[in-house]
What does this fold into?
Amino acid sequence: MNDTLREARNSALTLLAFAVIATALMAGVYALTYKTVRANEERAKLAVVAQTLVPGSYDNNPAQDALLLSAEQAARLDNDGPSQVFVAKQAGKAVGWVFESTAPNGYSGKIRLLVGIDRDGRVTGVRVVSHKETPGLGDYIDPRKDKNKAGPWINQFVGRSLANTTEKAWRVRKDGGQIDFHAGATISARAIAKAVRKAVQW
It folds into this structure.
């Protein structure tokens, strides 16, 4: 009986030693790669943010001048977690903002967006950050997957504002508005149009 207990104890100690070593190795790898991973994430985020702003209109890093929205403010953009507004500046003055926004009612779930807006309240660009829309049907909302490379669907929002686009015009053409859509994927277009307008209103 004592031999059995001794073997069980030794096995447990061996497993514990392996667990401690594995945890230490994982922590070490994380510590060594954390800064690199963060830097890569920062570059990737800045690249997408830049696609929603007018090239050459700002001289700062909008990601470094980002503002954190309160839970109440984020909810107004249908975001369900911490949200940021990336601030574009020229000579220290704000010239544009890029809002994190969510279209909660996409065909296959939430569509997360970045919406760029200038000082005059005009949309400077929109990019889809993540979505689960049907491949080959509803994923045209992402310019990387839109077959029309010369004039991606998402670009039709550029230049729109509350001043030059009526509430009805923000709807898809099927609903009497001005927003184009692809046949069979109206829900995706409708959800994004509503989310972009909310960001402009905000």
